[in-house]
Amino acid sequence: MNRLILTITSFLFINTIIASTAYGITDPAPPTITSEAAIILEADSGRILFEKNADAQMYPASLTKIATAIYAIETGNLDDIVTVSSHARDVDGTRVYLEEGEKVTLKKLLQGLLINSGNDAGVAIAEHLSGSVEQFASDLNKYLKNVIGVENTNFENPHGLYEQDHVTTAEDLAKITQYAMNNEGFREIFGTKQLEWQGESWVTTLYSHHKLVKGEIPYEEVTGGKNGYVDQSGFTLATTAENNQLDLIVVTLKSSSEAIAYQDTVSLLDFGFNNFATASIAKGNTFDADGEEFKTADTLFYTYPINEQVNMEVNKEGTLEVTGKDGTVIASYELEPMEVAATAEVKKSTAVQESNLSLFSGFSSSLIFLLASIAIGIVILYFRQTRKV
Predict the structure, then answer these.
(1) pLDDT of residue 361
(2) Quick one: which of 76, 253, 307, 336 is 20 to 30 A from 153 by CA?
(3) Partners of 105 in the β-ladder
């Protein structure tokens, strides 16, 4: 739970940064994309580098499983033993051929879900976590809205088989993937190319169905991915890739063919890597605005067009603007006034000094009283001895 809270807090901070969310006039010309919806999201900065119908609600097919997986990882126990029901065994579509009564760890089900796109694994996960697919969908939707912060998603099942109201957007899927990739357990499974599978009735090697992950279409920077298809959704892809300058998430929805889905994805990855870079501003970095001092409360990230001169300026309200050519705003951040931190330090220091002074004063008073008592005793003893003489 502590890890979940930390992941949620970090995620919410990144998404509260006020950043440019679409390619601007200083950015290079975007590629031509055939898929009906698409997006490139830079994961560190949260900047959208390209979008096409990114807020249009569409059917995601098996990209649903990204949400199911991260929800299960964060709310379940990967070592839990799950007993497979007949309902899970009999689900339609792609499966890992689970048997009724078969006992499988939650982690293994997640591997079957993401690597082999097992719908039966999805139902088994849902029933284990929430008791039923219907309750799981309700729980998942609340999680997606309240924890990740997506607004245009409604899932009716854990696997993505068609239901009329089972919809999301390219932007929401990119944000869900962005959030999920902060979890190392998710990253590991999402990027797995192949896995030996020992099931009760199926022993095989699972291979990722995503051709860029599997290496069937070579792309060195790719770190993970999920594909999907049902008749109503067309071909769908979610892909993650990174180099030393960018951490990209690409989503394409409703492609008319598998070839077009991959072609568009590669074009978008090329566009991102060839034209943009991400830089950071370190936590605690200070800025001066006409005598007013401000600092960054955490590390900040901004994504900018390669070979463009970047400028930074802070106004008296503590707003830092990163601008490019012709003053175009690339990113904007609210900084923390230095006097707030300084005042807190002064109060802390004063409290310590006062505490030490109080302790010293009490100690001094006691010492003086003791010395005075000894002196008086010596004087009395002296006079008594004098009288005896």
Answers:
(1) 37
(2) 76
(3) 81
pLDDT in tens, 257-272: 999 999 999 999 999 9
In 170-210, alpha helices (H): 170-180, 184-190
Domain edges within the chain: 2-20+58-237, 339-389
The pTM of the full predicted model, rounded to 2 decimals, is 0.80
Q: Would you state the pLDDT for residue 340?
A: 54
Which residue(s) pair with 79 in the sheet?
none
Cα distance between residue 81 and residue 84, in whole Å? 10
SS3 of residue 121 by DSSP: helix
Distance CA 263, CA 327 (A): 35
Best CA proximity match to 141, nearest among 131, 129, 151, 126: 151
Annotated binding site for substrate: 226
Contact 272, 247 (CB under 8 A): no
The answer to whether residue 247 scores a pLDDT higher than 90 is yes
State the DSSP H helix or E strand holding residue 236, giving kind and residue range, or none if neither.
strand 234-242
How many whole angstroms separate alpha carbon 278 and alpha carbon 284?
19
In the numeric block, which tokens belong to residue 185? 């357990």
Cα–Cα dist 271/335, whole Å? 32
Which run of H or E residues covers position 179?
A: helix 170-180
Q: How many CB atoms lie within 10 A of CB 247?
A: 22
- Coil/strand/helix, residue 36: coil
Q: What is the pLDDT of residue 321?
A: 86
Binding residue numbers = 226
If residue 379 lies in a helix (H) or strand (E), which one and from where to where? helix 338-388
The distance of Cα 46 from the centroid of its chain, to the nearest Å, equals 10
Give residue-wise pLDDT tens across range 209-245.
Answer: 999 999 999 999 999 999 999 999 999 999 999 999 9
**CATH 3.40.710.10 applies to domain 2-20+58-237:** yes
**In what helix (H) or strand (E) does residue 249 lie, and over which residues does it extend?**
strand 247-255
Which are the catalytic amino acids?
Answer: 62, 65, 117
Per-residue pLDDT at 280 exceeds 60: yes
Residue 238 corresponds to which tokens in the numbers above?
């979610």
Residue labelled with tokens 């008073």 = 365
Please answer whether residues 61 and 236 qualify as being in contact, where contact means their C-beta atoms are separated by less than 8 angstroms.
yes
Positive or negative, the CA dihedral 198, 157, 37, 11 is negative
